[in-house]
Amino acid sequence: MRTSGFLPSILLDRARNVGLLVTLILCLLFISFFSPKYLSIDNLLVVALQVSFVGIAALGTAYLIIGGSVDLSIGSQYALCAVASAMLARSMPSGLAWFMGIVLGAFLGLINGLLVWRISISPIIITLGTLTIFRGIALRITNGFGVRGVPKSFAAFGQARWLNIPTPVLVFALLALFARSILQYTRQGRHLFAFGGNREAAEAAGIDGKRMLLLCFAANGALVGTTAVLAASRFGTAAPTFGAGFELDVIAAVILGGVVFTGGEGSIAGVILAVILLGVINSGLISIGIDPHYAQMVKGLALVIAVTLDQITQEQQERHRRRMASLERATSA
Amino acid sequence: MINKNSPRRVPVFRGIGITKYFGGVRALDQVSLDLLPGEIVALVGDNGAGKSTLVKIFSGIYRTDEGDLWLGDLRVPHLTARQARALGIETVYQNLLLCDNLGAAANVMLGQEPVRSRFGPFEIIDRQRSLQEARKHIAELGIDLPDLEIPVRRLSGGQRQAIAIARATVKAHRLIQFDEPTAALGVRQTQATLDLIRQVAAKGVAAIVITHNLDDVFAVAHRVVALRLGRISLDAPVEQTSREQVVACMTGMSFQRESL
After folding, report:
1. What percent of chain A has pLDDT above 90?
2. How far is CA B55 from CA A231, B59, B67, B165, B180, in A?
């Protein structure tokens, strides 16, 4: 839970987001120095578009990890929803096909949620299993090929622009605002933090953990379905190889954004900043002519540095607590 | 068992003939206990005597195999944890069950945050009121806690203990159970915690305190109940007993022979 009303804790909690923002600005300055066209509106919209796909999924993953769980199968859900939606568009109105893609995502998420709830081993292992299963289904129903014969109307959703803003960007912005408000201001958001912080304590306080976990998994699936449908619609078709490694991009952004992998800590603002930062690093390095393989390394490095800083801060806090405890003992003795 | 001191007061909670088996082991054997409003009962006994089992039965976590629970005039044959909470029974566990990532206010109000408005199924927390109410509950117990919003993991053991007690008192209007509340505390923090227990009881709530510390028993309790091998071996007002008798009843050594 992010807190306020106490200056040091504000500074400590916001430090992450300020750090991300400063890094982002430095990156933009650096890139625009070598490639002045990078900061043009048109180019920034392209970057925003690329960022949106990871961003929408990152919102769901942020909720899951804050709640103490995770879903590794999102890349495969992405592929399955995309090909299913494109295939359905051949035999039904495009609008319905988009909708079915999102519903399928929610359903796949719910399956994961039920498995994670029922089987008491790490969600990493369980969703690693469903990652393979969902990818297998996507490959089977397409025979491994891209979907052909998708009507042109299917592309309308992903390629449309409102006030020159591409649909995925708009969808990401609206969902991000919604996700942040729910997490920050509602009882449900508070309970998610509580559940991720101490499951037993949350349930002792009467919070229905099962319901919350299932809802988070289903919502996460629906978000992945939304990304998948947007991407498929944008390309006008889909392939079963979509979204390979997607989960790594998403989880890296979420962790870099300050969500703690053990649960109970994080903010949507941080996740959004991290998603944008990684997107800018990716596209920026390419635009200034650096081998894109370096972008991969830089992204990984950013993640390692971020969690290292987290670890160090945590250890300092722990030391502080020990000092306080020994002080308490000393004054009472 | 009727308390001889105050026969006119009505028990808020009664356990009659409670027996509990774990496999073939009889953890509790015909235990009967009446709890009066405002009364602090120290529950003592060796490891495995059945103290924790009894507390878990009272909080609805375990079911009795034999025996009845009465909450006032209401007979509850199978008390569930949810029912226990709804009927005003709270337990402060040794591990406190706090959400370390949340602030004191959020912990105290957890599960019953005041709602300002709704947005579809989402309930928006009235943050100011939540803070005020938490502050009121914390202040009522005389706890000094300047910042109610920093994560409680940054607080000391004594402060965290106080928050767990404050949270329990928000909901407990019948019975509040303390599982070794002073085990991890220093002298001053122990005093503060015993004060909190007195204040909670002074509100008319019955209190059970599990403890291994006989100083605590005689400092805070009105009545001491000793369990030995699942049976009650002593149930007496503190004025009518002694450390030696309590120890004897806990260990099973004959008190008479000891004192000879």
Report:
1. 44
2. 57, 6, 15, 16, 11
